[in-house]
Amino acid sequence: MTADRSREHLIEVYRKKAKHYDLTSRLYPVPGYPVRAQRRMAVQALGLRRGYRVVDIACGTGLNFPLIESVIGPDGRIVGVDMTDAMLAQAERRTASNGWRNVSLVQAHAAQFDFPAEIDAILSSYALTQVPECAQVIAHGAAALRIGGRWVVLDVKLPAAAPRWLTQLGTAIVGRFASIDQWIERHPWETIRAAMQEELAEPSWTELFFGTAFLAAGSAGPGTADGTTGRQVPRG
Ligand SMILES: C[S@@+](CC[C@H](N)C(=O)[O-])C[C@H]1O[C@@H](n2cnc3c(N)ncnc32)[C@H](O)[C@@H]1O
Atom 8 (ligand 1): residue with closest C-alpha? Predict the structure, then answer.
């Protein structure tokens, strides 16, 4: 499948899922999978404060928005980016029903999105492993963060040397959005890990729930916006 074709296919998949996504995402991949706890961990890792400006890449229906809003308050700003119109329509509904006036929604492909300058934090949850250009997205975001700004990625992965039942769990998770074979072959979580290490200072990597998910985080250092890497930033 060409890149354009697989992108169109993903959009079609999410158009069908959009209306019931909030409900079905709670039950995926199996009832009881700690999606909500993982989401809270990811938002916590952003280190938000009142008034912060946050970009949520591939925001879907905006399930992260309530957690972000509760910290940044009305003085802050959320920019939600997604390529699927129907998912953004649900995010728009959520925004209106909560009366948030500080949310902008942008329909764009993550790799083509022009990040606003000097933002405080970027989050992407359960989405970036679906984006073949994920390293580019991480680099663009890192360049737009203010110094000390945080980049956090939460997503699913396959556990290393997984017992059979765990592999099945992992493939059940990804089965909802991608060709499993391609996804497994690409090991996109490794690409994300390497890109976070390359682009950000003090990168961290935490495996969650028996290695079926990961939380990758890092901060923009003085060297990250001018072409040098996060790892070259002096620590301490
Ligand atoms: C599983 S949903 C996750 C939504 C949300 N982040 C969450 O945590 O519930 C994946 C979302 O990624 C979006 N997406 C996938 N590839 C994308 C891309 N290349 N650019 C922008 N959005 C993308 C889909 O449209 C979908 O809304």
Answer: 125
With tokens 């992108």, the residue in question is 7
Q: Is the CB of 25 under 6 A from ligand 1?
A: yes
99: CA distance to ligand 1 center in Å?
Answer: 23
Q: Determine the Cα–Cα distance for residues 117 and 4; give it in Å rounded to an integer.
A: 28
**Residue found by looking up tokens 């956090």 in the block:** 152
| Whole-number Å distance between alpha carbons of 212 and 172 | 11
**Would the CB of 84 count as within 6 Å of ligand 1?**
yes
The model scores a pTM over 0.85: yes
> Atom 4 (ligand 1): residue with closest C-alpha?
60
| HSE value, Cβ hemisphere, 13 Å, CA-based, for 123 | 29
Angle, helices 3-17/85-98, rounded to nearest 10 degrees? 40
Q: Ligand 1 atom closest to Cα of 131? A: 19
| DSSP notation for 139-184 | HHHHHHEEEEEEEEEEEE-PPTT--HHHHHHHHHHHTTTS-HHHHH
Q: Is 38 in the pocket of ligand 1 (CB under 6 A)?
A: no
Over the stretch 21-53, which tens digit does the pLDDT of each residue have? 999 988 876 788 899 999 999 999 999 999 999
